[in-house]
Amino acid sequence: MDFLALFIIYLLLVLASVVLVCIYSGRKQSFPARGLSCITQVSSSVIPTRLQRATQRVLHRLFHTRSCLFIVLHLALQVAVYGEYTWEVFGYCQEMEFSIHYLLLPYLLLAVNMGFFILCSVTNPGIITQSNQESFLKAYAYDGVMFQKSTMCPTCNVEKPARSKHCSVCNNCIHRFDHHCVWINNCIGAFNTRYFLIYLFTLTAMAANLAIITTAFLIQVVLLSNMMLGSYIDDQGQEHAVEILFLIQHLFLTFPRIVFMLGFVIVLSLVLGAYCCFTLYLALTNQTSNEWYKSRSYECSCCQALQPHDRHIVYRNVYSQGVWVNLKEIFKPPTSSEKKKKT
Predict the structure, then answer these.
(1) Neighbours of 27 (CB within 10 A)
(2) pLDDT higher than threshold 70 for residue 37
(3) What are the extents of the domains in the chain?
(4) CA gyration radius, the chain
């Protein structure tokens, strides 16, 4: 069972790595980040100071300055996964007479995904400058709670339009700021949110599609070999019927690279699927990640200040105009020539 234990540890490490990347690439003051900060404080008494400072410099360089490192990592992971799929899974599935259209679907998703990945990376998300700030100031009305009139950005020296935020990574104020994505090395704002949505959904579909095809291949291997009808002898010489754990260990030993890839894409599918649901919720309710987080903080601060019988009061999103209008705004952001949304 040593190989099974190794495989389980591998899955846990993959999941931990994805979660850590999500934490570091998200907002610095989010709940997971605060939890990570507590862990860091506890570990500071054990880890040498020099190592702590070196780690902090590396993390700051990775997650708080613009870098192409994650783009390279993104492409390397895709090359590794698709290389394994093409080299082994595709050929085996052809021998088992899987539908060729079904096997080519991941490549179609890859082409679409790469196209929108490039669009996300190179499109101006809505950088606010002194020359264009007037047009952005007319796009949205101020809600008077999260966004106040006549607020200046001390770094960019511009008046901050409603729904904008200064990105410390890009060092720019961004119109309808959502978040800074390290995987595309760009901010997600008003003018590339639509590309990011399609990029995210196709990436999730790619991972899920590869997981389904690989799982179907392994199931077919088991069925054709009649392995479930057999038995095995353990170290004590006792005979046992084939169980799921033994079956996983056997597949891991027979197709190690394929099983490793399957574990990775399954974890990736689950994480991306959850993030897709959250992103779709934000799109349907006309919120950004920045606004969603601020609204949670606002509600918490209000609840602490109010009396117990008044704590049912919640922040109202004044920018939501209904599902279809909200989706239309994602794919056709409002300009200065359009009417302001009313509070």
Answers:
(1) 15
(2) no
(3) 1-64, 68-124+192-340
(4) 25
